[in-house]
Amino acid sequence: MKSLNIPKGVRRVLFKTLNTDRQLMHKTQFHSDFTAFMEDGAKWLVENTNIKLVGLDYLSVAAYVDAAPVHYAFLRNREIIPLEGLNLDDIQPGRYSLHCLPLKMVGADACPTRCILI
């Protein structure tokens, strides 16, 4: 994570990983070997950045084998919002303005969101 050199002041980061290259978001079968955060990577972001939102290009920001600890690391101390299931096919690395439009769902702890990059 350190080698990514995330600039100071960045609050939202979307990670385009091998999941996009493998086109996992376009497949109907679930793949448990997707690229995602392990607990140590999540903790590093919490401890070394001011990020408030982390997005990833598959169904979870957390690796299949480390799901609960990753979510706890993001949500426990800083409440970093996980943004999951992103289609980043045609998105090039760079700075964007991110707008997330969640559906209003009463009593839910998560909901579908339409995300727009400008």
TrEMBL record:
Its main location: secreted. InterPro entries: KFase/CYL, KFase_sf. One of its GO terms (biological process) is L-tryptophan catabolic process to kynurenine. One of its GO terms (molecular function) is arylformamidase activity. Keywords: Extracellular matrix, Secreted. The keyword Transport does not apply. It is found in: Secreted, Extracellular space, Extracellular matrix. Belongs to the Cyclase 1 superfamily. This is Kynurenine formamidase.
